């Protein structure tokens, strides 16, 4: 059975203003999401499921269906505010989506096979997709999930601070803990994060999560139960979010299974700041020049 790729794209409209303005980086107008789908198809993923907002579904399909028709199966699911909130009254001031783990939960019913989860606007690299596909085909189980571990030095920005999920890896290569570190910056060639009024240095090869996860469908009932608990504790907080690491941490802590950290040397790209854009474009141009990608992905 071929694995599925679940792409978290429900936040794209709010970030870009209009889907037709999605930033183009490739030589033939490709967006970052195009490269992820291309890498997934050649790594052996059989289906692409998009998590999107219902109010821009038609516009979204107009962009991607012509490119992907005949190349890979596609499906669309919506991250609606009231999904999986039975028994709870959503406060009127709640406008923010419930978070990445809720987005994954919304795909329950659309995915029945091992699957990977990625962000729509991050470039993950061919190596990461190939390794994840191999894991999903050969190792993934109800009690065995995975996360791609990037080298921190290949995920930072020269133009400001970033937040990263710093992974503590056990001797057997599994995830022990994942801790969100905010305000990670590079100064004088050294990487550090702020903690209170001090800075804590991190090595450039420190493994971090960029939200590239591998799951079995067993994650859905686990997430549904945890989301209900999350709502009980946080529904009155308009900024609270149910993130994937919340589910993963509980999965590990409760002894339900293990999460393998899949190391990759791939360079991560993303546009955290507008100044990052030229560097992303130059990096993709170099990959095309070196033969990693054709100059037109969908020709």
In terms of topology, how is this protein built?
Blueprint: E1 4-8, H1 12-16, H2 32-43, E2 47-52, H3 57-68, E3 73-78, H4 100-105, E4 115-119, E5 122-123, H5 126-138, E6 144-151, E7 162-169, E8 175-187, E9 190-195, E10 198-202, E11 207-215, H6 219-234, H7 244-253, E12 258-263, E13 269-270, H8 277-289
Summarize the structure.
With 299 residues, the protein is α/β, with parallel strands linked by helices. The protein contains 8 helices and 13 strands.
Structural write-up:
The chain has 299 residues and is of the alpha/beta class. Helix content is 29%, strand content 27%. The protein has helices at 12-16, 32-43, 57-68, 100-105, 126-138, 219-234, 244-253, 277-289; strands spanning 4-8, 47-52, 73-78, 115-119, 122-123, 144-151, 162-169, 175-187, 190-195, 198-202, 207-215, 258-263, 269-270. The mean pLDDT is 93. The radius of gyration is 19 Å and the shape is globular. Helix 2 crosses helix 5 (126-138). A hairpin with a 2-residue loop joins strand 8 (175-187) and strand 9 (190-195).
């Amino acid at each position: 059975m071929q694995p599925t790729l679940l792409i978290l794209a429900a936040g794209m409209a709010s970030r870009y203003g209009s889907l037709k303005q999605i930033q183009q980086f490739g030589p033939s107008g490709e967006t970052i999401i195009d490269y992820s789908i291309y890498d997934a198809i050649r790594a052996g993923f059989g289906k692409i499921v998009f998590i999107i907002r219902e109010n821009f579904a038609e516009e979204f399909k107009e962009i991607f269906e012509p490119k992907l028709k005949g190349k890979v199966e596609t499906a669309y699911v919506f991250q609606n505010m009231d999904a999986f909130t039975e028994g709870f009254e959503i406060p009127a001031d709640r406008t923010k989506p419930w978070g990445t783990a809720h987005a994954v939960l919304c795909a329950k019913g659309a995915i029945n096979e091992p699957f990977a989860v990625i962000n729509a606007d991050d470039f993950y690299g061919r190596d990461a997709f190939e390794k994840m596909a191999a894991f999903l085909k050969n190792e993934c189980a109800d009690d065995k999930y995975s996360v791609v571990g990037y080298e921190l030095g290949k995920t930072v920005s020269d133009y400001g601070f970033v937040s990263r999920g710093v992974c503590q890896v056990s001797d057997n290569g599994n995830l022990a803990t994942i801790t969100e570190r905010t305000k990670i910056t590079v100064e004088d060639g050294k990487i550090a994060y702020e903690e209170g009024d001090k800075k804590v240095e991190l090595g450039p090869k420190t493994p971090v999560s960029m939200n590239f996860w591998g799951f079995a469908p067993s994650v859905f009932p686990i997430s549904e139960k945890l989301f209900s608990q999350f709502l009980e504790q946080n529904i009155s907080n308009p900024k609270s979010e149910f993130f994937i690491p919340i589910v993963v941490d509980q999965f590990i802590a409760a002894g339900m299974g293990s999460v393998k950290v899949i190391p990759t040397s791939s360079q991560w790209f993303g546009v955290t700041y507008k100044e990052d854009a030229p560097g992303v474009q130059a990096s993709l141009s170099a990959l095309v020049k070196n033969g990693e990608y054709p100059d037109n992905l969908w020709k």
